[in-house]
Every structure is written in structure tokens, then in C-alpha cells.
TrEMBL record:
<dbReference type="Pfam" id="PF19372">
    <property type="entry name" value="DUF5947"/>
</dbReference>
<protein>
    <submittedName>
        <fullName>DUF5947 family protein</fullName>
    </submittedName>
</protein>
<dbReference type="InterPro" id="IPR045991">
    <property type="entry name" value="DUF5947"/>
</dbReference>
Length: 201
């Protein structure tokens, strides 16, 4: 590397904000409103810069380990989920490529997961046909009926991960304390419908 090239690298590194988020694939800084990828192997959400996210926008890339998380959000009418065995009013459901459906609910220790009954899920979808279009792995049915709330959404899975992180951060004591439920209410109040993925338009 020439002296001039090395100087440019040093200046570029110095110009980066130390708190800047980085792309988990290439290490580049990402914009505040960046896209996410879902790592099906590690079952985690990764930050992606625009060039890396574009690599996974083609339909054929959706079958690999990394899946581009869509931005679609759709508010649904009330969806009964009692037969799915949900023990709490705040939960989300993810359909997988093999046809199974996993149910999750947030807790102070993270998300608790179990497999939903396949027949019960088909009954739920029959009552709410939009759920048949859930994109496997990367979209979820998000439900909040706790404390008389009535929220039912199709959301990208990164919204669900944000909610789990929020509960872990705000939970206090055995019952959650005074901060967690107002924070959950704000989370749902800030959800906005996004029928189309703007990156594909």
C-alpha cells in the first residue's frame, strides 16, 4: 500500500463515528435507516449496508442462509390465538420454510420459544387469510392482548427482536415494574402500516 493510500485509510477510519453501526457482512458504516438480514443458521438479525442488502433482494437469494428482512407492516383485525397455546398476551409467531410455526414471547431473559400446533395454525389462517402470505423466517404475526390491548400485526421479524430487547431492557423485579408496560404501549403506538416494501419500488 502506498503512503498516500495508507493516509486515506487512516483519515477514513478517523472520520467514522465511534458509535456508528456497522454492516455485519462487510464492516462498512450503515445509515440509521438501514436494512437487516436474517441469519437462518444463527437465528439472529444482522445489520446490512445498502450494497450488501441489494445482494439479497433477488428472489433466488431468499433460499440461502441470509434472508433480506422486508419492511411490510399490516394491521390486522383481531386474530384469536388461544388454540395456539399462548400463555401470555404478548407474543409473535414465525412460519418457517419447512411449514412449521414457532411461537415466541418476550421475557426478562429473552424470547421463550415453542412449536405451535400445525392444525391450530391452519385454523387461525383460515380465519385470517392474510396470514397465508407470511414470508417464511422473516415476517411474523405479532399479537398484544395484554392489559386489554388489541394489537394484531404482520411485521418484519426485526420489529419482534426490537420488542424482545425492549422488554429485557425495561423489565424490573418479578412483575416487570412500572417501566416495561408503558414502553410496550409506546412500541405499538409507533408501529405504522407499510403495505409495500419501498426498496422494491
Amino acid at each position: 500500500m502506498t503512503t498516500g493510500a495508507l493516509a486515506r485509510v487512516i483519515r477514513s477510519a478517523a472520520a467514522r463515528r465511534p458509535d456508528a453501526e456497522r454492516c455485519d457482512l462487510c464492516g462498512a458504516d450503515v445509515e440509521p435507516e438501514h436494512r437487516h438480514l436474517y441469519d437462518t443458521g444463527q437465528e439472529e438479525v444482522l445489520c446490512a449496508c445498502r450494497p450488501c442488502s441489494l445482494l439479497f433482494m433477488e428472489e433466488e437469494a431468499s433460499e440461502g442462509r441470509y434472508r433480506l428482512v422486508p419492511r411490510r407492516r399490516v394491521r390486522l383485525p383481531e386474530v384469536g390465538t388461544r388454540e395456539l397455546g399462548v400463555p401470555v398476551g404478548l407474543a409473535f409467531f414465525v412460519r418457517h420454510s419447512d411449514g412449521t410455526v414457532s411461537a415466541h414471547y418476550p421475557s426478562p431473559a429473552g424470547a421463550t420459544r415453542w412449536e405451535a400446533d400445525a392444525g391450530a395454525w391452519r385454523e387461525v389462517v383460515a380465519r385470517c387469510p392474510p396470514l397465508a402470505g407470511l414470508v417464511p423466517e422473516v415476517e411474523a404475526l405479532l399479537v398484544n392482548t395484554a392489559r386489554s390491548a388489541k394489537h394484531h400485526w404482520i411485521v418484519p421479524v426485526d420489529d419482534c427482536f426490537r420488542m424482545v430487547a425492549l422488554v429485557r431492557r425495561e423489565w424490573r423485579g418479578l412483575s416487570g415494574g412500572s417501566r416495561v408496560w408503558p414502553a410496550i404501549e409506546r412500541f405499538f403506538a409507533e408501529l405504522t402500516e407499510q403495505p409495500q416494501d419501498p426498496a422494491r419500488s
